[in-house]
Design a protein that fits this description.
alpha/beta; Aspartate Aminotransferase, domain 2; seven-stranded mixed sheet; 14 helices
Length: 426
C-alpha cells in the first residue's frame, strides 16, 4: 500500500456509522463510466454504481459539459422552489419524454435531496389526502432511515428498536411461498373490521426490493395490491428510488404491470449524474398540499436539474437505450444461472439490471465480495442476512466490461467455494 492510501484521518475522525468504506478499503480518486480508480491508479469495475444512483455511469461527458457550462455562466445553484430556467428545462423534458408518452397526468413535487425525504413527503401527503394515518408496508421493504420512512422499513438492524408507529406490515409477494396468496390475505384483513388493521391511507411497495434481497413482485401480485388499495380507499405508492430510471429495463419499474400508482417516489439516478435530487409524482386529485405546507431547503438543486435533463434527452428519447438494457440483462441472467448451478442452495433473484444470487449464507456472500474487490470488482450484498450477491452495474456498462466483471465474480466465487470446502474435507 502506498503512502497515498492513508486511512488515518478517516479512522480517526469519521463516525463509526460509515459502512461501504469498511468493505472497500481504498482511497478513490477518479471515476469514469463503469470504472473507479484509486489514488495509486488501480482501476476497479463498478458493480455498485452508487447503490443505483449512477445508472448512467460516472461523469457522463455530456452531463459534465452541460454542468460546467451552467456553472461558468453563474447559473442559479440553490433556488429553493423558485422558478428557474434549469428547472423549467427539466420539467419540459420530463413531461415530453417520460410522462406524456406513458399517458401519465402526474404532477412533480420536488422534495429534499434524498429518497427518504421523498418517501416522507409521499406518506405525509397520503395521510392528508385520505384523512387516515395507517400505511401498509411489506416485509423486507426498505424505504429510508428517517423516522417516517424507517417505520415502513423492515430491516431490524436499521430500526434499532426505536418506537415507529403508523405502519402495518404485510407479507410481500411469495413471502410464505408460492402457495400463499399474500394479496388475498391483505384484502381479507382490510375488509374485516375486527382484523386489528386500521383503514390505510396508502399501500407502499417496491416492485423489486433492492435492499431486502432483490425480491421481485409478480405483475399479477402488483395488480392485485393496486386493486385492493383502490377498493379500500387507500393510495398506491410505488417506491421507485432504486428500481426506477431504467434499472429494471423500463424507465419506471411498473410500466409493464398494468398499474398507475397514485404516488411515485424517485431519487438516486433521477439526476443522471449522482447529484442529490428526489421527486414525488402525484396524481392531480391527490395534490392537496397548501403552499409551503411541505418543504425542504435543498429541494431546488439546479445543478441536478441540468444533468437530469441531459440524461432524459440522451437516454430516453427513443427505444435504443431500453433495448441495450434488455441485452445486458440477458447476459447477467445467463451468467448468474451458470454460477447458481455451481453453488448448491443458491438461486437467481431480481430482474433487469437489478439481479443477484441468493447464497446459502451471508458469510459466503461477504467472502466472495472480498475476493472480488481484491481482483478489481466492486460488488455488494443485500437481503435479511446479507446473503444476496447484488449486481448494480451502470446501465451504460459496455458489454465487454460487463463480461469481464462477471468473470471476476465467477472466479472469486469458485475460489471461495473451493477454500470453504477444504476444512470440511480434512
Amino acid at each position: 500500500m502506498s503512502e497515498l492510501q492513508d486511512f488515518s484521518v478517516f479512522d480517526r475522525r469519521e463516525s463509526s456509522v460509515r459502512g461501504y468504506c469498511r468493505r472497500f478499503r481504498a482511497v478513490f480518486a477518479t471515476a469514469t463510466g463503469s470504472a473507479m480508480r484509486d489514488v495509486d491508479g488501480r482501476e476497479y469495475i463498478d458493480f455498485l454504481a452508487g447503490c443505483a444512483s449512477l445508472n448512467y455511469g460516472h461523469n457522463d461527458p455530456q452531463m459534465s459539459t452541460a454542468l460546467i457550462e451552467y456553472i461558468q455562466i453563474n447559473g442559479v445553484t440553490q433556488g429553493l422552489d423558485l422558478h428557474t430556467g434549469a428547472k423549467r428545462a427539466f420539467l419540459e423534458a420530463f413531461e415530453r419524454l417520460i410522462l406524456q408518452p406513458r399517458g401519465m397526468d402526474h404532477r412533480v413535487q420536488f422534495t429534499g435531496p434524498t429518497g427518504a425525504n421523498a418517501i416522507e413527503a409521499a406518506m405525509k401527503l397520503a395521510r392528508k389526502a385520505t384523512s387516515r394515518t395507517n400505511i401498509i408496508a411489506f416485509t423486507n421493504g426498505y424505504h429510508g432511515v428517517t423516522l417516517g420512512a424507517l417505520a415502513a422499513t423492515g430491516n431490524q438492524y436499521n430500526r434499532m428498536g426505536v418506537s415507529l408507529p403508523g405502519v402495518t406490515r404485510a407479507p410481500f409477494d411469495r413471502y410464505f411461498g408460492s402457495d400463499f396468496d399474500s394479496a388475498a390475505a391483505l384484502d381479507r384483513m382490510l375488509g374485516d373490521p375486527s382484523s386489528g388493521i386500521d383503514p390505510p391511507a396508502a399501500v407502499l411497495l417496491e416492485t423489486v426490493q433492492g435492499e431486502g434481497g432483490l425480491n421481485a413482485a409478480s405483475p399479477e401480485w402488483v395488480r392485485s395490491v393496486a386493486a385492493i388499495a383502490q377498493r379500500h380507499g387507500a393510495l398506491l405508492i410505488i417506491d421507485d428510488v432504486q428500481a426506477g430510471c431504467g434499472r429494471t429495463g423500463t424507465f419506471f419499474s411498473f410500466e409493464e404491470m398494468g398499474v398507475t400508482p397514485d404516488l411515485i417516489v424517485m431519487s438516486k439516478s433521477i439526476s443522471g449524474y449522482g447529484l442529490p435530487m428526489a421527486i414525488v409524482l402525484v396524481r392531480p386529485a391527490h395534490d392537496v398540499w397548501r403552499p409551503a405546507e411541505h418543504n425542504g431547503t435543498f429541494r431546488g438543486n439546479n445543478h441536478a436539474f441540468v444533468t437530469a435533463r441531459i440524461a432524459l434527452e440522451k437516454f430516453w428519447s427513443d427505444q435504443a437505450f431500453a433495448d441495450q438494457i434488455a441485452i445486458k440483462s440477458d447476459i447477467v441472467t445467463a451468467r448468474l444461472k451458470a454460477l447458481a448451478r455451481r453453488i448448491p442452495g443458491s438461486r437467481l433473484k431480481g430482474r433487469g439490471m437489478m439481479q443477484g444470487l441468493a447464497l446459502p449464507s451471508g458469510d459466503l456472500a461477504a467472502e466472495i465480495c472480498r475476493r472480488c474487490f481484491e481482483r478489481g470488482l466492486i460488488i455488494e450484498t443485500s437481503g435479511a442476512h446479507d446473503e444476496v450477491l447484488k449486481i448494480l452495474a451502470p446501465l451504460t456498462t459496455p458489454i465487454t466490461v460487463l463480461e469481464r466483471g462477471l468473470e471476476i465474480l465467477q472466479s472469486a466465487a469458485a475460489d471461495a467455494l473451493e477454500d470453504a470446502l477444504v476444512p470440511a474435507l480434512t
